[in-house]
Amino acid sequence: MALIVQKFGGTSVADIDCIQNAARRIAFEHKRGHQLVVVVSAMAGVTDQLIQYVNATTPHPRAEEYDVVVSSGEQVTSGLLALALQNFEISARSFQAWQIPIRTDHLHAKARVNDICTSLLEETLQQGIIPVISGFQGLSPSGRMTTFGRGGSDITAVALAAALGASRCDLYKDVSGIYTADPRIVPTARKLDRVSYEEILELASLGSQVLQHRAIELAMSYRVPVRVFSSFEESTGTEIVHEDEIMEKALIHGITHTHSEAKITLTQVTSQPGVTAEIFGALADAGVTVDMIIHNNLESRDLSPLAFTIARMDLPQAQATLQKLKISLDFGDTIVDQMTAKISVVGIGLRTHPHLTGTLFRTLSQRGIEILGVATSEIKISILVHQDFAELAVRSLHSAYQLDGETAEKPMLYAVKA
Amino acid sequence: MALIVQKFGGTSVADIDCIQNAARRIAFEHKRGHQLVVVVSAMAGVTDQLIQYVNATTPHPRAEEYDVVVSSGEQVTSGLLALALQNFEISARSFQAWQIPIRTDHLHAKARVNDICTSLLEETLQQGIIPVISGFQGLSPSGRMTTFGRGGSDITAVALAAALGASRCDLYKDVSGIYTADPRIVPTARKLDRVSYEEILELASLGSQVLQHRAIELAMSYRVPVRVFSSFEESTGTEIVHEDEIMEKALIHGITHTHSEAKITLTQVTSQPGVTAEIFGALADAGVTVDMIIHNNLESRDLSPLAFTIARMDLPQAQATLQKLKISLDFGDTIVDQMTAKISVVGIGLRTHPHLTGTLFRTLSQRGIEILGVATSEIKISILVHQDFAELAVRSLHSAYQLDGETAEKPMLYAVKA
């Protein structure tokens, strides 16, 4: 008898029929004798509606109250799914984050899990009752509701799996698995049966949006085996495993892209040590996450440009922060480019096979696509291009790396939110 | 500087415009220097939608999960109204029942307040922050969410006013006050400027539905001064005061009616002591509230009919309970009449002026309306008639007791939910 965490995303609980369907899947695993812990998102569209209410109420919503409003959607689903299970004669009860509690930090709207008290859940499981837990929510140190940011129910699921020592974390989504690229742009994209945490981490953070970035980080840290399934069809999904469990044969695993960042260039930053640290420190304090950093700091020069990318939604905070810093640091002009797209090639073999990097630059050059920035990691090369060329770049690279399959599996199910 | 509890009902927070409007009313009282505690209902229609979800999920919802689902609507409004106040530069923060907490008993879907911990609210008020509290909700002894039944936000408001020792409890509703009758049926109905707790108690429990019955009981017990206002117009509303504060001049204060009960007759109940107690005890245990009881127990007879009315929605439980009792008590047939309406004449002078009772019977007799049952209290006479005659009866009695005014104030705003 295994302990499995099952998480149902928004489209998997979009209406009462979907909720009944989710209940049937839970009943199926339950009858196989597994102990189950269920995590739910809000019904599809509900969180968007709630965010719309917030934005219609005030142009500058405080995150504490934003969290109160947007976390209510999950509460509804947890109650309804518990009722649907009870209707199938299965013992179930809903839990909100504050009841468990799932304790987080103070960072409203993008809180991080501090710890999860498992005693109430373990007691519930021992009584043969399936806990149905509202995802996305947490409880702050001062007893207020927090949320984890969009897709945050994945975080709840993986954190619970880690805390409870679950043998598996199954994420039911509106996609049948992880693809080599967005099938809406690359019709020949293939579903991956297995992928490493490290790769999916890069894929998730780069806009594939199949999985919440931080959920994967958590899964990786606690070695939680994660599987991504479709709620709407029978399929093997994609299994996410440790890098060492993957053979070396597969080199490039996917091409991803995102449109949601802005590139900021500070034209003249002094090369004194501590200056960049001060800039990035101040941005971090303002809650702005910096992604790519393009800084060619030549010792021979006093001043050099510093470029970096951030999420476009963080632009107001970033600009306000830079405005303040400019007085003390005097880094020249601040140039903002919101017309960029980031394309990333992800694969384990990237660093150890230098010709793969060459393929990237050659392919883009052949298409006449200008590269506005480059960032590399162990398993990823990201390039910044003008957003008009993003789709062309993704398709060209997908072919160049011979990722094209016969035909994509159900590409219409693949959701990219840019 | 007075402490005032302000409660905004569903239509008063129906959309973002209404929420902004409520925020302006709060801002107005705030600027006059009053300390305010705000209670909110769910946006109009939201609770109905949630109940619909529950009923679509399972034919027999368990009240624990029902409460989880339906209490979410208030959470949304509390957050949005706090945001709207913050947008007006007024310090505010939302509270859910579990955060305060508002402790109740275990009776899900119709919980009763046990106690309210005021320390967090008092601390908040001392900091100059307006607490915006989700109405309708409570926290059970086992840490689960409870609700107070429809209109339960009134209970939250009055209970808070009592616990905090507020000098006033203002209820903003979609009516401009309490009327002598339903203006949709009696166009000449008049708004009452003042009415006693006792009378409004009778009016509320009889279907006027302007005020939640139990909220008035609470207000009466703790002598909380309550005022009913319209959210949509400037008016003096109706003030609810103690009976002894009302002069003797006004005798009959209103005629109410309701269509939502069923009459049950047990044809042959033995006159042994304890039998009726056993019947009503079992119904109470099953959560069925018995309203009128019509029992003419003649000592000379062994068996006599026992009739009583209950809420129509409780009929399944009542019938199941009676079925079980029938085995031991053998009370003959169970006759159910769902075609009844209850008409009530409410007024302080009723008992002390016997001619007023005569007016009731004479008026109905003149109209040829058959009386199916009578129940009396200190300030009320209720009669049961066939529901086809309900409106005729109300209008005739309204005239007979000379309650007709020149023309009703905004009768379209008067809401009767039968």
TrEMBL record, chains A, B:
ATP binds at K7, F8, G9, G10, Y179, R184. It holds the Pfam family ACT. It comes from the Bacteria. GO terms for biological process: homoserine biosynthetic process; lysine biosynthetic process via diaminopimelate; threonine biosynthetic process. Its EC number is 2.7.2.4. Pathway: Amino-acid biosynthesis; L-methionine biosynthesis via de novo pathway; L-homoserine from L-aspartate: step 1/3; Amino-acid biosynthesis; L-threonine biosynthesis; L-threonine from L-aspartate: step 1/5; Amino-acid biosynthesis; L-lysine biosynthesis via DAP pathway; (S)-tetrahydrodipicolinate from L-aspartate: step 1/4. Keywords: Amino-acid biosynthesis, ATP-binding, Kinase, Lysine biosynthesis, Nucleotide-binding, Transferase. It catalyses: L-aspartate + ATP = 4-phospho-L-aspartate + ADP. Substrate binds at T47, E74. SUPFAM superfamilies: ACT-like, Carbamate kinase-like. Residues 264-339 form the ACT domain. One of its GO terms (molecular function) is ATP binding. It is an enzyme of class 2 (transferase). GO terms for cellular component: cytosol. Belongs to the aspartokinase family. This is Aspartokinase. The gene is lysC.
